[in-house]
TrEMBL record:
<comment type="pathway">
    <text>Carbohydrate degradation; pentose phosphate pathway; D-ribulose 5-phosphate from D-glucose 6-phosphate (oxidative stage): step 1/3.</text>
</comment>
<dbReference type="GO" id="GO:0009051">
    <property type="term" value="P:pentose-phosphate shunt, oxidative branch"/>
</dbReference>
<dbReference type="InterPro" id="IPR022674">
    <property type="entry name" value="G6P_DH_NAD-bd"/>
</dbReference>
<dbReference type="GO" id="GO:0006006">
    <property type="term" value="P:glucose metabolic process"/>
</dbReference>
<protein>
    <recommendedName>
        <fullName>Glucose-6-phosphate 1-dehydrogenase</fullName>
        <ecNumber>1.1.1.49</ecNumber>
    </recommendedName>
</protein>
<keyword id="KW-0313">Glucose metabolism</keyword>
<keyword id="KW-0479">Metal-binding</keyword>
<dbReference type="InterPro" id="IPR001282">
    <property type="entry name" value="G6P_DH"/>
</dbReference>
<feature type="region of interest" description="Disordered">
    <location>
        <begin position="1"/>
        <end position="23"/>
    </location>
</feature>
<dbReference type="GO" id="GO:0004345">
    <property type="term" value="F:glucose-6-phosphate dehydrogenase activity"/>
</dbReference>
<dbReference type="Pfam" id="PF02781">
    <property type="entry name" value="G6PD_C"/>
</dbReference>
<dbReference type="GO" id="GO:0008270">
    <property type="term" value="F:zinc ion binding"/>
</dbReference>
<dbReference type="InterPro" id="IPR000571">
    <property type="entry name" value="Znf_CCCH"/>
</dbReference>
<keyword id="KW-0521">NADP</keyword>
<dbReference type="InterPro" id="IPR022675">
    <property type="entry name" value="G6P_DH_C"/>
</dbReference>
<feature type="zinc finger region" description="C3H1-type">
    <location>
        <begin position="4"/>
        <end position="31"/>
    </location>
</feature>
<keyword id="KW-0862">Zinc</keyword>
């Protein structure tokens, strides 16, 4: 298997265009992988994010052989307790064009420990994503995967459990079984308590055996309920962090349930970790069309000039699922749809949509712009929210349960399973533009999309051809995140013929028609980024604070006033109150027409 250094299809530093058919990604990294081509990084001074303790081993390689030591190392800025740092290196003159740069290629290893390995998310998403990365040769040459949980399991039992959820992509099936066996052979299990330093010390011992004396880089994925995050981080950090490489921790949401609990969680984690070791995951940021949002905006001249209050009338962020909380009611009842979807997934999309152009594609530059937008927003007001809860419904002889029919949900629960909200960004670009959010479970379809409604054409020559409903004639840009990923623009055109009848048509980029390649799951992208130390798609603590500041007051008010949700039937389009909310802001939901 080739190592990260040779698997340039996973990340490319080249600025030249990749062929559309290739699986290569554009890296935004300063750099985090073990090999970079100097040809792509002129001038010869390069920054390398690496293990600072590995400094004596940093050697440039010429024509595949170790040739010389580096000329100088500057700006050594270890950025955390565990030696994850940044080196700026100048190469000797003779390596001007030809050298490639290798940092401990054969001397380092990555161990990925899935904490909570027996759980739903681990089985459904994390192990399959790791396998997909392995299949694509995106994991480093030396890697080991450990499952950690309280359940008693042997390595063989873990492998058996994982194997049930591994699949190969439709377009990549070559040697699938063989690859699966190879992957499973790199997976191991350790049973332990989440709050036991001893149990994590046992894990540490096993990890060391697998690392075989190489520089050890360790990634812990906390796929456990939030009440045990801190205990697990404490034990992992004190007993199982790397002694000579980096240690990173991926934390799953929920990151608290309001500003105070979120800040307390951050403080608790920071007792054991530096901010740049914490990778707060929001899997929506790993979705292909969300990742494409910045490309659409900043690499197409036609969109950016229109991206403001001058041309945009409303922006709508819509999430719907056609199933209820099935199986997760216990978790959900403590959070509700606003915390589960709006405060994180939809708000993250909003921030990427509305931010100013970042200075660069560097993680900190992008996150700085996102924070600025979030901090320019008005905290959500009670009159700008409506909430709903699904009730049972029988259709075609089939009975669908209501939210409170779930045995893990209290019968008198007022937790919203649906919400619609109007948010505002009080800055020069977006002043007065309603950003409408709508999220719900047990609705009539499963969809996530961004809908940009443009203003009416002033003095429209063709008004009379549209009739009275001018809204039917406004342009609309739709970014469909899922399913059937697509970007389409609704335009007006003349119906061919001798008359003058106007029609609406879509200029449509449907991904499945344009690309034969299967789109990677969000977790693949995010796991690869975490291994590579790329933080762009993870939530920084100040972003999280700003996000909670927008929703905490209204969440408290809803709970203190015990606001009763509007009930809607399972499988419907949700409560009618959502329409009144939009109407109060002089807009209509764009997802309700017959042709969408
Ligand atoms: N499932 C999903 O689709 C999503 C999940 N998440 C988040 O990811 C994390 C993991 O989710 P998920 O896999 O569904 O969670 P689970 O409820 O399946 O929990 C994962 C594992 O944690 C252990 N565990 C469960 N409850 C407790 C407890 N009370 N005390 C100690 N250990 C416990 C169990 O392992 P054992 O008993 O073997 O120790 C379990 O297998 C959570 O933070 C969740 O909010 C986020 C987005 C989506
Ligand atoms: O984070 C969550 O997301 C899922 C929806 O994710 P998707 O990738 O399938 O769209 C949602 O069902 C869950 O309630 C929420 O916690």
């Amino acid at each position: 298997m080739s190592s990260l250094s040779s698997s340039t299809h996973c990340r490319s530093y080249s600025s030249s265009a990749c062929p559309a058919s290739s699986s290569c990604n554009y890296g935004h990294h300063r750099t985090a992988i073990s090999s970079i081509s100097l040809k792509q990084l002129l001038p010869r001074k390069v920054s390398v994010q690496s293990n600072t303790k590995a400094r004596p081993n940093v050697v440039p390689i010429k024509d595949g052989a170790v040739a010389a030591t580096v000329a100088s190392i500057e700006n050594e800025t270890p950025s955390n307790k565990l030696g994850d740092g940044l080196l700026s290196i100048t190469l000797p003159e003779e390596f001007k064009d030809t050298a490639s740069f290798d940092i401990n290629k054969d001397k380092s290893t990555v161990s990925i420990t899935v904490v909570g390995a027996s759980g739903d998310l681990a089985k459904k998403k994390i192990f399959p994503a790791l396998f997909a990365l392995y299949y694509e040769d995106c994991l480093p040459e030396h890697f080991t995967i450990f499952g950690y949980a309280r359940s008693k399991m042997t390595d063989a039992e873990l492998r058996n459990m994982i194997s049930r959820t591994l699949t190969c992509r439709i377009d990549k099936r070559e040697n699938c079984d063989e690859k699966m066996d190879q992957f499973l052979n790199r997976c191991f299990y350790h049973s332990g308590q989440y709050d036991s330093q001893n149990n994590f010390a046992e894990l540490d011992k096993k990890l060391k055996e697998h690392e075989g004396g190489r520089i050890s880089n360790r990634l812990f994925y906390l796929s456990i309920p939030p009440n045990i995050f801190t205990a697990a981080v404490r034990c992992a950090s004190l007993s199982a962090s790397s002694a000579n490489g980096w240690t990173r921790v991926i934390v799953e949401k929920p990151f608290g349930r309001d500003s105070e609990s979120s800040a307390a969680l951050t403080d608790a984690l920071k007792q054991y970790l530096e901010e740049d070791q914490i990778f707060r995951i929001d899997h929506y940021l790993g979705k292909e069309l969300v990742e494409n949002l910045s490309v659409l905006r900043f690499s197409n001249l036609i969109f950016e000039p229109l991206w403001s209050r001058q041309y945009i009338r409303s922006v709508q962020l819509i999430f719907s699922e056609d199933f209820g909380t099935e199986g997760r009611g216990g978790y959900f009842d403590n959070y509700g749809i606003i915390r589960d979807i709006m405060q994180n997934h939809l708000l993250q999309i909003l921030a990427l949509f509305a931010m100013e152009t970042p200075v660069s594609l560097d993680a900190e530059d992008i996150r700085n712009e996102k924070v600025k937008v979030l901090r320019s927003m008005r905290p959500l007001q009670l009159e700008d929210v409506i909430i709903g809860q699904y009730k049972s419904h029988t259709k075609g002889g089939v009975s669908y349960p209501g939210y409170t029919d779930d045995k893990t949900v209290p019968k008198d629960s007022l937790t919203p399973t649906f919400a619609a909200a109007a948010l505002f960004i009080d800055n020069a670009r977006w002043d007065g533009v309603p950003f409408l959010m709508k999220a719900g479970k047990a609705l009539h379809n499963k969809r996530a999309e961004i809908r940009v409604q443009f203003r009416h054409v002033p003095g429209n020559l063709y008004n009379r051809n549209f009739g009275t409903d001018l809204d039917q004639a406004t342009n609309e840009l739709v970014i469909r995140v899922q399913p059937d990923e697509a970007i389409y623009l609704k335009i007006n055109n003349k119906v061919p013929g001798l008359g003058m009848r106007l029609d609406r048509s879509n200029l449509n980029l449907l991904y499945a028609a344009r690309y034969s390649k299967e789109i990677p799951d969000a977790y693949e992208r995010l796991l690869l980024d975490a291994v590579e130390g790329e933080r762009r798609l993870f939530i920084r603590s100040d972003e999280l604070d700003a996000a909670w500041a927008l929703f905490t007051p209204v969440l408290k008010e809803l709970e203190e006033k015990a606001i009763i949700p509007e009930y809607y039937p399972y499988g419907s389009r949700g409560p009618v109150g959502a329409h009144y909310l939009a109407a109060r802001h002089n807009v209509r939901w764009c997802d309700l027409g017959l042709e969408q």
